[in-house]
Design brief:
Layout (H helix, E strand, L loop, with lengths): L1 E6 L6 H6 L8 E6 L4 E6 L13 E2 L5 E9 L3 H7 L10 H12 L9 E9 L4 E6 L8 E5 L2 E5 L2 H7 L9 H10 L12 E3 L4 E6 L4 E7 L15 H19 L6 E4 L4 H13 L4 E7 L7 H11 L2 E7 L1 H5 L5 H5 L8 H12 L4 E3 L4 H5 L3 H11 L5 H10 L8 H10 L13 H10 L10 H5 L7 H11 L1 H16 L3 E3 L5 H9 L2 H4 L7 H6 L6 H4 L14 H4 L6 H12 L1
Helix pairs in contact: 6-7, 11-19, 13-18, 14-15, 18-19
């Protein structure tokens, strides 16, 4: 794991840029100035700790150079195949990617599985190529204007390095943030600066000084069926086998590895599988002094059942107060998921012992774990609702605060607006004032991001699982975890988001996966004999900071966009 940076303007300050993301790789740094671009790297040593694993890395004939942030899992078989033709000088996955690219071109992506932001400089055709992993686990930003091009792992590296750029705010991105509580890809808060979307590649032509291509390299095939077609026991066996293999691959490292244990279903399953392969593995959990938020008791059930080596920290408001103001330094642009705070603290706790942790992220999106899925299926598609019911549903999700009453029913009819776990509950008049202040046209549709991935032909819960996988997961969950873990120089791996697991989850028909009455049904059935029932069948809670921690600051502030602005300033300094 590491941080990467590069660009075609040789006058930019790449040393300053890579230093700004030193936390992503405190073990070593390197900046290489090439004939028509510069590549920079800051290293967190995980695989092949020797100098041979250092980047930027160039192949033997000098034709291709790579900088890369991430991990490729199960690459040994691919390496054995490539060794028939290429001479390897390291034991790193970086060199495997390098020679896989030489052998297969862009189709090397078909041969790898993992989390990655890969940048390849190909001297043969004078191109810089960017590739981001299928689920969007690892971030990859790029700047492009008037022929100038740069890329980086974090936004701050671009703003630090690109010294002559006039960074102008994209107010449509801030407007989107009012609705999502994060800025959806490919936008950032700046004009001419973008996030490369998950499962996408970009080609920049150095000679013509233009982006030649931005395209999707992987398409997720989703089962459109509703009913069950395969035997339950067969599917459960297959799920356990696939997850077990994924965890085993994710445990591979040349440094100590641990796991996060929250007391929920997903982290409990990952911890169980980790313990199977590595009985001495360290687990890390946190709780809260406020009992209604505290889940550490459920984690204790797993600890006791499997005699886990676990560190637990119980948080109070003083723990959060000590790190308030850092949100802006972690995310570089507005981001409103306050579960970043406990995520940062548990990452700091784990970093005392290990460099790598496995997390349970992705399980809810793949296998249908959010309570709102049930509501969506019952209220939108389950029955015809009269106008009064539409109005009540709209008020429940806060649409009456954003849209005129006559448009609530219109939006609910699309099936989109009943699906907003992260809608900002702002008063319509306040949102309208921001629209006018930012000179955003009345015809601007902030729901463009959801509509892009809304597939009406899919069954109800499959539809929103897919929608979450494409939007909320990379935009919020994975962004949150990457920044706070890397702020602690800790690599967070996500076994649920291995390619095989993703494709299995979406190969399930709706009833094979879950129903509105039995969310995560297949996961619960598959692990019913090894995970305590109190964990499997309890009501889901979010991993959020108790609202009391912010009560004093909110007391006299109305629920408007002004409050949003105030809270962002309070939380970020």
């Amino acid at each position: 794991m590491c941080g990467i940076l590069g660009g075609n303007n040789q006058g930019w300050d790449y040393n300053k840029g890579i230093n700004s993301i030193f936390h992503r790789g405190p073990d070593a740094q390197k900046v290489v100035k090439l004939s028509d671009c510069t590549l920079a790297f800051t290293r967190l040593s995980i695989m092949d700790l020797s100098e041979n694993g250092m980047q930027p890395m160039t192949c033997e004939d000098g034709s291709v150079t790579i900088v890369y942030n991430g991990e490729i899992y199960g690459y040994d078989l691919l390496k054995k195949e490539l060794e028939k033709k290429y001479h390897f000088q390291s034991h790193s996955d970086t060199e495997v990617i390098l020679y896989a690219y030489l052998e297969y071109g862009d189709r090397f992506l078909d041969h790898i599985d993992g989390m990655f932001a890969i940048v390849i400089y190909d001297r043969r055709n004078r191109q810089i190529k960017l590739y981001r992993d299928r689920a969007g686990i690892k971030p990859l930003y790029y700047y492009y204007r008037d022929g100038q091009f740069a890329f980086a792992s974090e936004l701050k590296a671009l703003t630090a390095a690109c010294t002559d750029v006039d960074w102008k705010i994209d107010y449509t991105a801030l407007y989107d943030y009012l609705f999502y509580q994060y800025i959806p890809d490919p936008k950032t808060m700046y004009k001419d600066c973008y996030k490369l979307s998950p499962a996408h590649m970009l080609v920049y032509d150095l000679e013509k000084r233009r982006i030649k291509e931005v395209s999707k390299y992987w398409k997720l095939h989703v089962n459109t069926a509703k009913g069950r077609y395969r035997k339950e026991e067969v599917l459960c066996d297959e799920l356990r086998s696939i997850l077990s293999r994924s965890v085993q691959k994710h445990l591979t490292a040349d440094v100590p590895v641990g796991c996060f244990l929250s007391g929920g279903i997903d982290s409990s399953i990952i911890t169980y599988e980790c313990n199977h392969y590595s009985p001495d593995i360290h687990a890390y959990t946190i709780g809260f002094e406020e009992k209604k938020y505290d889940e550490s008791g459920f984690a204790d059930m797993m600890i006791g059942k499997y005699h886990l080596n676990c560190k637990t920290k119980i948080l109070n408001h003083r723990d959060v107060d000590r790190i308030k103001g850092r949100m802006k330094t972690w995310y570089d642009e507005p981001f409103a998921d306050t579960s970043a705070y406990p995520s940062y603290i548990v990452s700091a706790l784990a970093r005392q012992d290990v460099k790598v942790v496995l997390t349970g992220d992705g399980g809810d999106e793949l296998f249908g774990g959010y309570d709102r899925y049930s509501l969506y299926a019952k209220t939108v598609d389950g029955k015809r609702m009269d106008s009064e019911m539409f109005s009540k549903a709209g008020k429940w999700i806060g649409l009456h605060r954003i849209l005129p009453e006559d448009k609530v029913q219109k939006y609910l009819n699309t099936g989109l607006e009943n699906y907003f776990p992260y809608i900002m509950l702002a008063e319509k008049s306040a949102v309208e004032s921001y629209r006018k202040r930012w000179n955003i046209g009345k015809d601007y549709d902030p729901y463009w991001h959801l509509k892009k991935y809304y597939v009406k032909e899919l069954p109800q819960i499959t539809r929103v699982r897919y929608l979450d996988f494409k939007t909320y997961l990379p935009g919020d969950i994975l962004t949150k975890v990457d920044r706070v873990s890397m702020a602690n120089s800790l690599e967070a791996r996500v076994p649920f988001l291995g390619k095989e697991v993703i494709e299995f989850a979406f190969s399930l028909s709706e009833e094979e996966c879950c129903t509105s009455h039995a969310l995560k049904r297949i996961m619960k059935d598959a692990y019913s004999t090894v995970i305590p029932k109190e964990i499997l069948y309890r009501k889901k809670r979010g991993f959020s900071v108790p609202s009391e921690y912010f009560a004093a600051r909110r007391k006299n502030i109305p629920i408007t966009c002004e409050r949003l602005s105030h809270e962002w300033k309070e939380l970020t300094g």
